[in-house]
Specification:
Layout: H1 4-50, H2 59-96, H3 129-133, H4 139-150, H5 155-168, H6 172-185, H7 191-199, H8 208-230, H9 234-260, H10 265-280, H11 286-292, E1 296-297, E2 300-301, H12 302-317, H13 322-326, H14 328-331, H15 333-348, H16 352-374, E3 382-383, E4 393-398, E5 411-415, E6 421-426, H17 432-448, E7 456-459, E8 463-467, H18 480-493, E9 501-505, H19 514-530, E10 534-539, E11 555-560, E12 562-565, E13 568-571, E14 576-577, H20 585-591
Parallel strand pairs: 3-7, 6-10, 6-11, 8-9, 9-10
Antiparallel strand pairs: 1-2, 4-5, 4-7, 11-14, 12-13
Helix pairs in contact: 1-2, 2-6, 4-16, 4-17, 5-16, 6-10, 8-9, 8-15, 9-15, 10-12, 12-15
Length: 596
């Protein structure tokens, strides 16, 4: 496997060289165009003022300027593509060097404050997991990736996804090409609207009506020519009368059909290029071959069909032009384009959802593949068979993927039949909340089919439930404690499913007094363990660690430690056995000058 940083740097340098070369050509062609215009003006003066040359020579500078303009446009397009590719590799290098935060899509549109773990684990925020993972350029790819992060996938799908990612992570050319093409496509394609239009019921007749409309348009042209030649217009009026009847019958339905297709011709053309790139790619994996097989049939390919639709949409867009309005009656312009769109929809409409599904899946897979390629030390998790309702989680040297590698402290944790609950005590800022997020976010990665940040992770299929952040709500009239217990109730409801629960609670029941917290925590944790759940709970209230005794031998106490050194609070963020021996609250207050 090639070094991702070296490979990206080499490709970046090559694209920068292309940009420099295209810029030089851009300037030269600009000068040539100016020279051609100047030459043409001189020749025009020679023709009009002096009649020194034949007027036909003016076609030479005109033709030369047209050729230069086409060449110039292609040069600018190639430069733009190279610039997009440059940005693609610069973002990749930034991710490798942990400078990625704040770049790329945050997935803000997927945020749901009521989601059972997304807010606590920073999935869809600036500097969040989605921003780190997503290289998707199309909305459907982002949708699919967000879906994987928000809900655990079935284990067979996860294992299959791991295999696909392993095959795709070296496909740099494919990732670059889709990034370049998709950059312009994002704003010009609405996949949901396109699927809705493609699967809608037919509103125009089929078969003979399309041929009849075309025949009427030809008859109108012939009748007009005959009328002008013979000064006899009865055939023309007859044809126009028949066309008026067709317009009255079909125009409104055709207009509705045309207006329902909101995607632009440019967007459909770009989408066809994405499909063609996926069709042309050679895949060694039978799984990938089967996946993209949906794009090809015996009667044609998805990319060709989309190009046909793009041409139809191009003509549909012309109906509002002056020529389009003028051609409405003799040529049945809107009806003709509507019938063409309806014929396309009957043939290909039922396949549109499959095509978009393929692109969605491939974009999400390529995002995970890019992450895997850029972090070669991160392994895929191993799933162990789930026996009855027994849950299992064994992570070695787990780190938080959103923390730069140079600052990331790794810890190991195991939850099984003999150690189903870990109570972590420790001072403020000692790393308790970060460790919960480390466990949670690596579980999300594992259940999405992505590599994890750690030495290894073995686990059974799990449902994830967290309560790490709680805040009061003035709008809803809820205290932070009430918000917390509502979230805990949501987590508890997950125990009724067949998949065992992994729960992660930070500062459990911190919004109430120590006496009620002790009793409430013991009852809650006992109920969760009785339902086969495993989990981690943090607290700075040492009284809460005593619940390990009545809950039996399946509960272990661990802690994070700190110490004061040179007048500053120091943390090593390493998880240790037992209950923390001291608190830093008073030390912190004294360090900032409070006399306590």
């Amino acid at each position: 496997m090639s070094d991702p940083s070296v490979e990206y740097s080499q490709r970046l340098e090559a694209r920068l060289n292309v940009i420099a070369a295209k810029n030089a050509v851009h300037l030269r062609v600009g000068y040539w165009k100016l020279a051609t215009i100047a030459t043409g003006l001189v020749m025009l003066w020679a023709v009009l003022a002096r009649q020194l040359v034949t007027p036909y020579l003016l076609f030479i500078p005109a033709a030369l300027y047209l050729a230069l303009a086409l060449f110039h446009e292609r040069t600018i397009r190639d430069r733009t593509h190279a610039e997009t590719a440059t940005a693609f590799y610069q973002r990749g290098i930034a991710r490798i060097e942990d400078r990625w935060s704040g770049t790329g899509e945050t997935g803000e549109r997927f945020r749901d404050p009521k989601h059972i773990y997304a807010e606590d684990l920073d999935l869809f925020v600036r500097g969040g997991l989605f921003q780190l993972l997503s290289t998707a350029r199309l909305p459907m790819g982002e949708n699919r990736l967000a879906k994987w992060l928000c809900a655990p996938s079935p284990t067979p799908e996860i294992i299959e996804r791991q295999e696909l990612v392993s095959v795709l992570r070296e496909k740099l050319d494919l990732r670059e090409d889709l990034a370049v093409t998709g950059e312009d496509l994002r704003a010009s394609l609405d996949p949901e609207s396109l699927i809705g239009w493609s699967e809608a019921r037919s509103v125009l007749p089929s078969g003979a009506m399309r041929a009849t409309a075309a025949l009427l348009a030809l008859c109108a042209v012939a009748a007009l020519a005959y009328g002008l030649a013979k000064s006899f217009y009865l055939p023309l009026f007859t044809v126009l009368f028949l066309e008026a009847g067709v317009l009255g019958w079909l125009w409104r339905r055709a207009e509705t059909l045309v207006e329902g297709l909101t995607s632009s011709a440019e967007g459909l053309n770009l989408f066809s290029k994405v499909l063609q790139r996926l069709e042309d790619q050679q895949y060694s994996s039978p799984l990938l071959q089967n996946h993209v097989a949906k794009l090809k049939t015996d009667t044609g390919s998805a990319s060709r069909a989309l190009r046909q639709l793009a041409r139809i949409v191009y003509w549909m867009d012309g109906r509002n032009s002056l020529l389009g309005r003028a051609a409405e009656l003799p040529f049945l312009y809107t009806v003709q384009t509507g019938l063409a769109a309806e014929a396309w929809r009957r043939r290909w409409g039922s396949r549109m959802r499959d095509w978009i599904e393929v692109v969605s899946e491939m974009e999400a897979l390529l995002s995970v593949a890019a992450y895997s390629y850029e972090h070669p030390a991160d392994p895929f998790p191993e799933f162990v068979p789930q026996e009855t309702s027994r849950a299992f989680f064994d992570g070695a040297d787990l780190g938080h993927p959103l923390i730069p590698s140079s600052k990331c402290v790794r810890n190991s944790i195991r939850l099984d039949e003999t150690q189903r609950l870990v109570l972590i005590s420790g001072s403020n800022m000692s790393g308790k909340s970060t460790f919960l997020r480390t466990v949670g976010i690596n579980t999300v990665l594992a259940l999405a089919g992505a590599p994890i940040r750690g030495k290894s992770l073995r686990l059974t299929p799990l449902a994830i439930g967290t309560r790490i952040r709680s805040a009061d709500s003035l709008q809803e009239g809820r205290s932070s404690f009430f918000t917390e217990i509502l979230q805990i109730r949501q987590v508890f409801e997950l125990t009724h499913a067949t998949t065992p629960l992994l729960f992660l609670f930070d500062e459990l029941l911190e919004g109430t007094n120590s006496h009620d917290r002790r009793i409430g925590a013991e009852g809650l944790l006992r109920a969760l363990l009785n339902h086969g759940a495993i989990g981690i709970v943090t607290t700075h209230d040492l009284a809460l660690t005593e619940v390990a005794i009545p809950l039996g031998g399946v509960v272990r106490n661990k802690h994070f430690q700190d110490h004061v050194e040179d007048g500053k609070m120091r943390f090593d963020y390493k998880l240790q056995e037992g209950i923390v021996a001291k608190s830093n609250a008073l030390a912190l207050m004294r360090l900032i000058g409070l006399d306590v």
